[in-house]
Fold this sequence. Notes:
This is AAA family ATPase. By secondary structure, this protein is of the alpha/beta class. The chain has helices at 19-28, 36-47, 53-67, 71-85, 99-108, 122-131, 139-153, 156-160, 172-185, and strands at residues 7-12, 33-35, 90-94, 113-119, 164-167. It has a 5-stranded parallel sheet, sandwiched between helices. The longest helix has 15 residues, at 53-67.
Amino acid sequence: MTQPYAKIIALVGLAGSGKSSAVEYLTEKGFPKIYFGGVIYKAMDEAGIEKTWDNQQQFREEIRRREGKDFVIKRVIKNIHDLINAGQNKIVLDGLYTWSEYKFLKHEFPGQVVVIAIVTPKYLRYQRMAKRTERPMQPHEVDQRDWSEIENLEKGGPIAIADYFIINDGSLEQLHQKIDAATHDAHFCKSPEQC
């Protein structure tokens, strides 16, 4: 028996790029979201570890070393199958980080996964990260986070090989328009207006 077809949009980007705003925009339209970090949070709860940014980052790297690079993606794939089996045919992924996760998704759902990278000039990312109410960061901290995520989590691969690139250097409304255009072009939505 063949598995039902779904269109899966994975949004990727470095910290401060606007990825979370893009995910929020699509979920407000009613599309279900799977948050990769939720898998980590659940495992942290089970291990009795407090959920702080530093703990999460350290735990994510440690559990992938201990359990394998596929620890998160195996659980995400199960969640995707559960949504598809429940009748969902359009799914948003938030938190695809690693090259390994990217390859697992592409293998498990051939022709169904579209990666959209949200790319923002570094100076704007610095400004946004400094203004965050939760976990604000100074430029050197943003750089350290980027390097850590690129070197330890292979985060650069999915961004570099994305199917679509959205340059997020304008207003939130402009970002939404670019998301509508990309999701329409990717056949996720019937038209930019009907997404």
